[in-house]
Amino acid sequence: QFQLVESGGGLVQPGDSRRLSCAASGFSSEFGFAIGWFRRGRGKGREGISCISDSNGHTAYADSVKGRFTISRDNAKNIVYLQMNNLTPEDSAVYYCAARYSTTDTCSTFDDEYMFWGQGTHITVSS
C-alpha cells in the first residue's frame, strides 16, 4: 500500500528556512507518480502549494510560495523535498504531501487529483 511520511516540521522564526521531506513507500513500480505538497493553516482551507512530476521534468508553485519554496525529488531514495525559505507567520500550517500515479510527466496542485496522503507535519513560524 502506498504510504507517505512527512518530516521536518517544527517551530521556526520569521525569515528562517526549513526543508520538509516526504518519504514514499509501498508504491507500484509499474507506474510513475507525481507528488504534491499541500498545507492547511488554522481556520483556512487546504491549499495546494507545489507539485513535481515523476521524472522531475515538471514543477509548479502557488503564487503564495513562488520564489521562496523549491520542490525536488530524489527517486533513488523515494523522497520529495520542499525547501522553504524566508518563512513568514502566514506560512504556519500543517503541511501534507500527496501522491498520484501518473502515465504522463505532469503534476497538479489540485488536491482532488491525489489518492494517497501523508499524516502531515506542522510548521509554526513565530518570533
Give your account of this protein's structure.
There is one protein chain. By secondary structure, the protein is mainly β. The chain has no helices and eleven strands. It has strands spanning 3-7, 10-12, 18-25, 32-40, 46-52, 59-61, 69-74, 79-84, 93-102, 116-117, 121-125. The strands form two sheets. Strands 2, 4, 5, 6, 9, 10 and 11 form a seven-stranded mixed beta sheet that branches. A four-stranded antiparallel beta sheet has the order 1-3-8-7, with no helix packed on it. A hairpin with a 6-residue loop joins strand 5 (46-52) and strand 6. It is globular, with a radius of gyration of 14 Å. The termini are far apart. The mean pLDDT is 95.
Oligomer: single chain
Class by helix and strand content? mainly beta
Which range does the strand content fall in? over 45%
Low-confidence stretches: none
DSSP, total strands: 11
Short description:
The protein contains no helices and 11 strands.
Structural descriptors:
127 residues; mainly beta; seven-stranded mixed sheet; four-stranded antiparallel sheet
Task: Describe the protein's topology.
Elements: E1 3-7, E2 10-12, E3 18-25, E4 32-40, E5 46-52, E6 59-61, E7 69-74, E8 79-84, E9 93-102, E10 116-117, E11 121-125
Parallel strand pairs: 2-11
Antiparallel strand pairs: 1-3, 3-8, 4-5, 4-9, 5-6, 7-8, 9-10, 9-11
